[in-house]
Design a protein that fits this description.
Length: 324
């Protein structure tokens, strides 16, 4: 078996454990004082276990009553008391990953902000009583130098605890860079979506105003055309009535004259022959039978009878014939 070498350096292990303890303080929930489980961040920036903050806000004496949980309003942050909205909890996957790695080391949780000394952070091996200065990658837990030489871990990949912490940090930093890049991209996408949405809403508002103006002008045009047509029809109605009365009066006079002449002819035909012959010439001179080609013209035609049929501008809409 290869020698452990620098992995048993107590100074390096103490420094790594101190760093792990410092990192551990940043991944400990301030409510349950345990490593984060399903950490979520509130609007003020603090993070808590999802179940812990839910229980904290459900405790009696909190300013918001139970009925308000149906429509969450601002509630105090358990750490800084700043008002935050329960509906704005954001999962913190980076903290969850770090807490999972630290949990695999088997180290106890520290209170938030607490910095343990290197000697206190070095937990002892339960089996051998030696400080846990090494980390077994196969088993995913911290071990001592005696465990490293035991048959159980002989074929396992073992690293000094500080190197394991460093690798974990580098892995988290690389993931954090990717997450930050994704976050920036999503922020750009959101900005573009908001800009496009505002532009579309602006175009829709302009189109709505345009359609309203067009229909308003169309309604005004139709009202004007209706007035013109109704006025023209009223004028034609008066003209028809006047001409009809004139024609009826003229026809009445003609009928009276013809009836009188017809009666005169009938009386002449009933007289004796000599009287009949004498009055025959008088009857002819009075125009009883003026002969073909000498009849009086008929009465004036009704106005509009010689005009074309009204033009239609659409279903049920008639325009006056041109010219009016």
């Amino acid at each position: 078996m290869a020698a452990v070498g620098p992995r048993t350096d107590p100074g390096a292990g103490a420094e790594a454990l101190a760093l792990a303890a410092e990192l551990q303080g940043e991944t400990t929930c301030s409510i349950c004082l345990e490593l984060f489980r399903e950490p979520v961040s509130v609007e003020c920036g603090h993070s808590f276990c999802r179940s812990c903050i839910a229980r904290c806000w459900e405790r009696p004496g909190v300013e918001a009553p139970a009925a308000s949980r149906a429509l969450p309003g601002p509630l105090p942050c358990p750490q800084c008391r700043e008002p935050v909205r329960p509906g704005q909890l954001r999962p913190n996957r980076q903290l969850a990953s770090v807490a999972t790695l630290l949990r695999r080391f088997g180290l106890p949780a520290a209170a938030p902000g607490e910095r343990q000394p290197a000697e206190a952070a070095l937990a002892a091996c339960v089996q051998h009583g030696e400080p846990l200065k090494l980390y077994c990658q196969d088993d995913g837990r911290a071990i001592c130098v005696v465990c490293d030489r035991a048959r159980e871990h002989r074929a396992h990949a073992v690293l000094p605890l500080d190197e394991a912490v460093q690798e974990a940090k580098e892995l988290l930093e690389s993931r954090l860079k990717v997450l930050k890049k994704d976050l920036e991209d999503y922020e750009v996408f959101r900005s573009m979506e908001e800009k496009e949405s505002k532009e579309l809403l602006k175009q829709m508002a302009a189109e709505r105003e345009k359609v309203g103006a067009e229909f308003q002008a169309l309604r005004a045009f139709l009202v004007e055309q209706e007035g013109r047509l109704l006025g023209r029809l009223e004028e034609l109605s008066r003209e028809v009535t006047q001409k009809q009365n004139e024609n009826i009066a003229q026809l009445g006079g003609e009928i009276t004259q013809l009836s009188k002449l017809s009666s005169q002819i009938q009386e002449t035909t009933r007289k004796p022959d000599l009287d009949f012959l004498q009055e025959f010439k008088n009857t002819l001179s009075s125009g009883a039978d003026p002969g073909p080609g000498h009849r009086q013209p008929p009465p004036h035609p009704l106005p509009g009878s010689e005009e074309r049929a009204p033009r239609t501008a659409g279903p049920g809409l008639a325009l006056p014939p041109t010219p009016l």
